[in-house]
Write a structure and sequence with these properties.
The complex is a heterodimer of chains A (110) and B (161). Helix content of chain A is 85%, strand content 0%. Chain A has a domain of 73 residues. Chain A has 110 residues and is mostly helical. In chain A, helix 1 runs antiparallel to helix 2 and helix 2 runs antiparallel to helix 3. Chain B is mainly alpha-helical and 161 residues long. The N and C termini of chain B lie far apart (58 Å). Classes of the chains: A mainly alpha (110), B mainly alpha (161). Chains A and B meet through helix 2 and helix 3 of A and helix 1, helix 4 and helix 5 of B.
Chain lengths: 110, 161
């Protein structure tokens, strides 16, 4: 008989992640929730497949490894988008003072 | 006292110009701040190509199951497909490794490479004979590719700007 269920797993993972990420949680919430939902569904399916005898222990470990990699890829995406936002912000700030600074100094320094 | 001022003034004057020069050099160096490399169409197309190959792989596996042709899903029949995907990912790794500030994208490509090897090992170990397994593998690969597309789209917006 199956023991695991998607919503219980998802809520437990979301609670732990929220606590661990603290103030960074709002930034990663959407993508993380999607990934945890996916992981929860897969864990429940692994249990069902184990009960049906259609998956080996080795295969289930390989699947979990794949899930971890996919999660890391999601975090990298989040991080890269964050870096691009910082990059745009800094460049926008420099753009805003470009004309004033260049005129005042008399050189095109920005 | 005057002698002290006479020597100190030019120094202050030089140091002022030196400061301005250093500030200028810093601003010139920072005239466009880049934390992540610019969008690269070849990399983007390469990722799309790998995604297409992996999607085709899943479609073939799925169709074989639906037509009860489980024999056709044996690992040996897909060895060449895995090798082809391996080659495409390796090309991406080389390209991303050579592009400046492409560390984030390279890390994603390396993780995609790892996931393809894990999937190949999964296939080799006991085969892929039911749609539930394909669903599991497919969902994981979709999350992987979606994350890569998010990055590529973000880089594209930067290029448009």
């Amino acid at each position: 008989m199956a023991i695991l269920n998607v919503s219980d797993l998802l809520n437990t993972m979301l609670g732990a992640a929220k606590e661990s990420a603290a103030e960074k949680w709002p930034v990663m919430k959407d993508l993380a929730t999607l990934s945890f939902k996916n992981i929860s569904q897969n864990l429940v399916q692994i249990e069902l497949m184990k009960l049906k005898g259609t998956i080996t222990e080795e295969q289930s470990k390989l699947l979990i490894e794949m899930q971890k990699n996919a999660f890391k890829m999601m975090l990298l995406a989040q991080e890269t988008v964050g870096l691009l936002i910082v990059e745009h912000t800094l460049n926008a700030a420099l753009d805003a003072v470009r004309a004033v600074v260049n005129t005042a100094v008399g050189w095109t320094i920005i | 006292m005057w002698n002290h001022l006479r020597t100190a003034e030019p120094l202050r004057f030089i140091s002022g110009y030196l400061r301005l020069f250093l500030l200028s050099m810093l601003l010139v160096a920072c005239s466009e701040i880049r934390l992540v490399g610019a969008y690269d169409e070849v990399t983007d197309l390469g990722i799309q190509q790998v995604q297409g190959e992996v999607s085709s792989l899943f479609v073939t596996l799925e169709k074989n199951i639906l037509t009860n042709d489980l024999q056709s899903n044996s690992y040996n029949n897909f060895k060449n497909t895995y090798n082809q995907i391996d080659g495409q990912i390796e090309s991406l790794q080389i390209r991303c490794g050579a592009l400046p500030k492409y560390n984030q994208v390279l890390k994603q490509v390396n993780l995609l490479d790892s996931n393809m090897h894990l999937m190949e090992k999964f296939h080799r170990s006991a085969g892929i004979t039911d749609t539930l397994t394909i669903g599991l593998l497919k969902r994981t690969m979709v999350v992987s590719f979606r994350s890569m597309i998010v990055v590529q789209n973000a880089l594209k917006r930067e290029k448009i700007k």
